Amino acid sequence: MSTAGFLKRLHQPAGVVASGRRVDGYLALEDYGALGDGRSVALSGADGSIDWWCVPNLDSPPLFDRLLDPEEGGRFCLTPVDPFEVERRYRPGSNVLETIFTTAQGRARLTESLNSGTAGRLPWGELARRVEGIDGTVVFAVEMRPGRRANGASPYRSKIGEHAVFHVGKVLGLLLHSDGFAGEQADDGVCGRLTVAQGQREVLALIVGEGEPLVVDPVATIDERIDLSDKEWRDWSDRVAYDGAHREAFIRSILALKLLLFSPSGAIAAAATTSLPEGIGGRKNYDYRYAWVRDAGYTIKAFLTAGARAEAKAAFTWLLKRLREHDARVCYTLGGALAPDLTVIDVPGYRRSGPVHVGNLATTQHQHGIYGDIFETASRFVACGNILDPSSAELLSHLADQCADAWRKKDAGIWELETPQHYTMSKISCWQALARAVELADQGQLPTTCRDRWSRERDRIAAWIEAHCWSERKQAFTFYAGSEALDASLALAVRFGFDGHDRLEKTLDAIDAELGAGPYHHRYSGVAREEGCFLACSFWMIEARALLGQRDRAEAALAALTAALDRGVGIMTEMADPASGAFLGNLPQGLSHLAHVMALHVLTQQDPC
C-alpha cells in the first residue's frame, strides 16, 4: 500500500477499532483521544471514561486523574453496562471526538467536546458529552467522581439554589444533564444510569471554574455548542495551507498542536500530561506541562508551515517576552515564570511506574540548542514576509553574542542529560544560530555591528565539529566529541543546513543501523534498555532523507512508521515500545506531532510563505 493509502486508512471516517479494555485498571495510552479548548486538555478513554483533565488550565492540578491512579483517581465515566465493542474517530478537520459503542442490545454514539463559543475560548471550562441511540437500546453506567488532588483536597457538595455544586479546593463545578439521566449525588460524586434507544438523544455536561462565578446555561445550549465547536475547528483547519496527498494526516497533527497552544498567554506546552513513563517500570517520568524553547520554536515553524500565522505570532511573541524577562532558559511555565523544582506526588502512576512529578529540573540546565531554536524561529518568521521590531532585533543580537562566547563550553545537550559534554548537536545548534544571525543581519532585520564576528565564529564552530565529532570507524558524526556513540537528533542537522552532504548521509545510515528498531529509532546509543523509541527521531530521519534527495527511501520509511502507529485516533505519545508497538510517554506529545508535520511538508515541498 502507498504512503497515502496508509495515511488515509489511519484517519478514515469509518473510525478506528479500539479495545476499551482495562488491564489492572489502566487503558493502553493509544486508547485515549484528546479534547481541548485552548486552555485545558482532557483525555477520553475508549471505554467512555474521562481519565485526565486539569482544571482550569492545562498545568493546573487535575480534576480527573484516573490515568495515574486507577483506583482512587477522579474520573467521569459513561460506559455501557454490557460487554461492548468500540469504534472511534475525530470528526474530519475537528477536535470533536466520536465513539460508537456496540453491544448485543444496540448501538449508541458518544460525541465529546471541550466547548468553545462564537468568540473563541469560553471563560469557563465546559466539557460536553452527547449520547445518541443508533439502533436497539444501550444502557450506560455514569460516574462522575472528582479527584482529591493527591489527598490535598476533600471534595464536597453544596446546594446552591436548585443546583448541587461540587467543590474541590477552589474549583467549583456543576454536572448538568438532560431529562433522561437520574443519579445519586454524594460528596464524592454522582452515580447513575442512562439508557438511550434508537433516535433518542441525551446530554451530560460539566461546567467548571476556579475562584470565579459559574455560568449555568440550558443543557440545550451546551448541546448546540458541541456542533458550534466542531464548526470552529473545521473553519480553522480548512484554512491550513497544505494540499498534498497527506492532508488528512497533516491536519490531524496540526490540530493536536493547536490543543497545546495555551491561548491565555501564547505559550506552547510540550504535552498535556505529567509522568507517563518512557518505559514501563522505569523512572523516566517527567512533567511536560511546560513550554520548552526547543518545542516552542519547532512548533512555531510548524504553524508557519501550515499558514497559521496568528498562532505562530502569538507563540513567537510569548517566547521573546520570556527571553527578555529571564534570559535564555530551557523551559518556562505557561504563564511565563521559570518552571518549578520537582515535587513528588503520592499516587501510583501509570501502570505503577512512579514517581509522579510536578515541576521539571530542565529549567536550571543550560542547553546550547536554545540558541539555534530561537534563531531558526526568527529566521522562519521573517522568511514568511514578517518584520522584526527594533526591541526584538536588539534582543536577538544580544543572544547571538552570547552564543558566540558560549559555544566552546560543555552543556546538557538536546536530551537534557546530567553529564555535561561537548555534544555534537549542541555545537551544530550554535553554528545554526550564528548562521541565521548573519542571514538576518544581511537582510536588514538585525544590526550589523557584530555581523562579521558572528560569521567568523560560525566558521570556527563548523571546523571544530569536523575536527572533533567525526568518527572514521563509525563513518558518522558522533554523540559528543571523543565518543563513538550515536545520536538520532543529528538528523536535524540536515534541516538546519549544516554543511557536509556526504557525511550527513553516512551519519543517517549509521543511525539506522545502530539506533533503528523496525520503523522506529532510539534517541542515542545505550538508551534502549531504559525506554522506548522516540517518535520524533523517526520523523526527523524521514525528513532528512527527503531533504538529501532520497525521496523513495523517505516515503517507504513514512509508510512503515504510519502503519506501526495505526493504533488510535491520531494522537501521538512521545515514544513507542518497538517490540509491542504500545505507546509510551506523555501525550499529546507536541514534538512527535510537529516532527510529523515537518516530514509531510518536506515530502510535499509546499511553502505557504
Automatic annotation (TrEMBL):
Question: Does this UniProt record's set of keywords contain Hydrolase?
Answer: yes
Its GO biological process annotations read: carbohydrate metabolic process
> What Gene3D superfamilies does the record tag this protein with?
1.50.10.10
Q: Give the top-rank taxon of the lineage listed in the UniProt record for this protein.
A: Bacteria
Q: Where is the Trehalase-like N-terminal domain?
A: 29-111
Q: What does the record list as coiled-coil region(s)?
A: none
Query: Which keywords has UniProt assigned to this entry?
Result: Hydrolase
- The chain positions of domain GH15-like read 245-540
What Pfam family is a match for this entry? Glyco_hydro_15
Q: Fetch the InterPro entries from UniProt.
A: 6-hairpin_glycosidase_sf (IPR008928), 6hp_glycosidase-like_sf (IPR012341), GH15-like (IPR011613), Trehalase-like_N (IPR045582)
MF terms (GO), sorted A to Z: hydrolase activity, hydrolyzing O-glycosyl compounds
Write the protein's name: Glycoside hydrolase family 15
Source organism (scientific name): Teichococcus deserti
